[in-house]
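<given_protein>
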Amino acid sequence: MFNIIMHCSTLDTKGGMVSVTKNYLNYHNWKEFKIKFIPTHFDTNKYIVMLYFGIRYIQILFAIIFGHYNIAHLHTAERGSFWRKNFLLKTYHKFGIKVVMHHHAAEFEKFYASCSLKKKEKICKALAETDMNIVLSERLVPMIKDKEPNAKVEVLYNAVQTFSENPYNTDAKGILFLGRLGKRKGIFDLLNVIKQLDDKIPKEIKFYLCGDGEIESVNERMATLNIGHRVSHVGWIDGFQKEAIFQNTMINVLPSYNEGLPMTILETMARGIPNVSTRIASIPEVIKDGENGFLITPGDVESLANCIEKLVIDTALRNNFSNASYELVTRNFSLDANIEKLKNIYKSILPNVDGTIK
């Protein structure tokens, strides 16, 4: 039996990193692997975060002493998240426990560039000392290797639940934005697009703006643009709401400026929902422009409007994109395949275990 201890934010925290973690914890077929999860963060002010981490750190020490763990799997982003995981990295290595650092940061390069020389040296040292760094796509390998050539890196794409048949609703009338409501995700560009399309698309087409973040600013901008009649929902959605909205989604739109590999794109593509997103980070490895979705340059509001309008009007194109999206995610991004590779990554860093990464 391999005992894995895993850390990220609390499971009610919003975001793709937690979605990935929940997929792992809910998976049914770990066989010889057993996972214990201890959260190390939740969204609040930094002083409470520090106190919370201190309490959890004591729990982690007890787990280390009595749990006989082989590997610590640390899900990390940038800034405070990285420094907390760096502290845990050093702790686990003192006890002879191997560490996997799973990088989900959308703004790691920006974070690194903002650091002092001394902090950059600490980041590079952490990357080198980590037994295996996991990144979300081939395009993100240089994010690690350019800083620390000796770092061990493996690519593990995010994965999602897949379906035996394409569940896409061809009669759906909703356009979905699923992510944190803020400038980085391009929500204000989308609001301008909704205004542009108001007299160009059927009146029954509604937009779902689903996420936490700058909800008040979004509502204020909607009022200024007078587009409230086009929007059916603003704010976070839970599991039941999410499924209901997926069932009525014709297009998913994510006009982000910075990303890794967004879970919302994979989740919607698995359901056959065509995507319009931006040509950044790992997104072009999933969305093939003109084949299963559309890609634009971040901030190109005119192209965003044109792509959405084209998909709304052209039913045949939308259905072709739906089938291509469903087939790609089912083939390459299933949770079963993802976890099999993760098991091999675990085995590869353990002594006296023949771990073959496929």
Observations:
- Residues 46-67 form the longest helix (22 residues).
- The chain has a mean pLDDT of 95.
- The domain at 174-332 is CATH 3.40.50.2000 (Rossmann fold).
